[in-house]
C-alpha cells in the first residue's frame, strides 16, 4: 500500500472547492410532491423532529456524512468543527475514510473526536474494498477505537475506483467479507455508497450477511466520478470520470426501491439531500436518518458556529415541513407514503 492517501484526500478537497459542478445539484427530490395541509390541526410548537437512532435520541434525523481526516491542518480543522457542531446540536456524525491512519499514523488525531463530542453518535469509516487489499477485522476495530465510534461505516465506491487509473477494483467476494466483519465487530456495521446508490439486490446480499444498516448514498449530489476526473493529471485523464459523472441510482428512487426491504434494514438517505424539505421527503420514503456531506464542507473550514448555522436552518426547514404536513412527530412521518402526492403517491417511480 503506497502512502498517497493523505495527498489524494487533500487534492479532493481542493477539487471540490474549485469545481462547483462536483455537486451535481440534480435536485431529484424536487420531483416529489407532498400533501400540504391548510388545516394542520397542530401548534407548530408541538412539532417534535427528534428521532431515535441506534438507541440514541437525536434532536432531528441528521447525519453529517463521512468526509475527511488526515495529516493536515485543514482536515483537522474540518473534523474538529464538525464534531463540536454535532455535539452542540445533537446530530450524528461520520468521519472520512480512516485508511490514511494506517499508512500515516500522525493522521490518527484527526479522527479522535470523542473528546470533542462526548455524547454524539459517531461513526468510523473504511472502504469495504480494503478488505480485499489486506485489511482485516483488526483494522476495523482500530478504526472504531480511534474515533470512539458507536458503529463502523464500510463504504462501497466501485465507480470511484473504476475511474482511477490505479483504483482498487477487485470487488469480488466482498459481500462475504463484509458479513464476516458484521459478525465479529461487536458494533453495528453500516454499509454505504458514496453517491451512486445501493440497489435491492445489493441489500439482499448485505442482509443475508447480517448487515442491518444501509445508507443508500445515491446520485444527485456529490459526484466522485467527476471529482476523480478533475483530480487526475492531464495525461492520465480518459474522460471516463466525466462520462460517468451522473451514473447511479437517484437517492429517492433508491429509497423507493428498498421499501420491501424495510423490515430487515434500517435506511439512511444521503446523496443530494439539500434542505429540510428533502429530509422530510426522504423520511416519508422510509429513511430513518438523512446524511449530508458537501454542504458542510465550506462552513466546516470556517468555524463550528458556521456549521451550527447550517444545521439550525435544516432543523427549522424540517420542522416547518412537518407542520405543513400536519405531522407532529417522526413516527408519523417515516414511511408514511400517504403523505405523497401525484405520480409518487401512486407508487410510480419519479
Ligand atoms: C469532501 C468529501 C469527502 C468524502 N469522503 C468520504 C469518505 O471518506 N468515506 C465515505 O464513505 N464517503 C465519503 N464521502 C461521501 C459522502 O459521505 C456522501 O455519501 C456523498 O457525498 C453524498 O452526499 P452529498 O451529496 O450530500 O455530498 C465524501 C464526500 C465529500 C463531499
- Return the structural class: alpha/beta
The tally of beta strands, per DSSP, is 12
- The name of the CATH architecture is Alpha-Beta Barrel
Order of helices and strands: HEEEEHEHEHEHHEHEHHHEHEHHEH
State the helical fraction: 25-40%
Beta percentage is 5-15%
Give unreliable regions as ranges.
none
Strand arrangement, largest sheet? 4-5-6-7-8-9-10-11
How many individual domains?
1
* DSSP helical segment count: 14
- Within CATH, the superfamily carries the name Aldolase class I
Mean of pLDDT: 95
- Rg is 19 Å
Shape: globular
Q: End-to-end span in angstroms?
A: 43 Å
Oligomer: single chain
Descriptive account of the structure:
The structure is a single chain. The chain is of the alpha/beta class and 350 residues long. The protein has a single domain, classed as TIM Barrel (Alpha-Beta Barrel), CATH 3.20.20.70. Helices cover 37% and strands 13% of the residues. It contains 14 helices and twelve strands. The strands form three sheets. The chain has an eight-stranded parallel barrel, surrounded by five helices. It has a two-stranded antiparallel ribbon with strand order 1-12. Helix 4 links the parallel strand 6 and strand 7. The longest helix is centred in the last third of the chain and has 22 residues, at 304-325. Flavin mononucleotide binds next to helix 1 and strand 7.
